[in-house]
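Q: Give me the 3D complex with calcium ion.
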Amino acid sequence: MCAPEASGNQADEGGRLDEGQEGRSRVFSADLHTRPYLNTTGLRTQSTMESAICTLVTQFKAFAGKDGSASTLSKDEFEKLLASQLPNYAKNYSSPAAVEQLMGSLDENNDGELTFSEFWQLLGKLASQQGGFGQ
Ligand SMILES: [Ca+2]
Ligand SMILES: [Ca+2]
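A: Here is the predicted complex, encoded as structure tokens.
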């Protein structure tokens, strides 16, 4: 369940979005402070991690919904998602052949489409690399 976008205080809630600075690690530079997640009207809002999950799901759905099945990513949709949402993390997959290979490694049932859970394997891998957790 994605809560409606908190109005106004998005900037200090998630990663800093100042485009001018080193953009590389900004997704993971979200404030880790532990203030209660209350918005200006005193209502409980999503935590940083909840918002991150919400973003992943929302983006997956946005790309998966472009053609064919709305709940799975075709190769074309997957390619667009990589280029648009993971440009730094997935820069080794900029050629169509590399995308195809990556997709094949994620597509567990080999139906040419990625479900969210198949796609999730990639996120887990990228997150592990980001955190230096190894494989
Ligand atoms: Ca689709
Ligand atoms: Ca599949």
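A quick observation: The first helix runs from residue 10 to 13.
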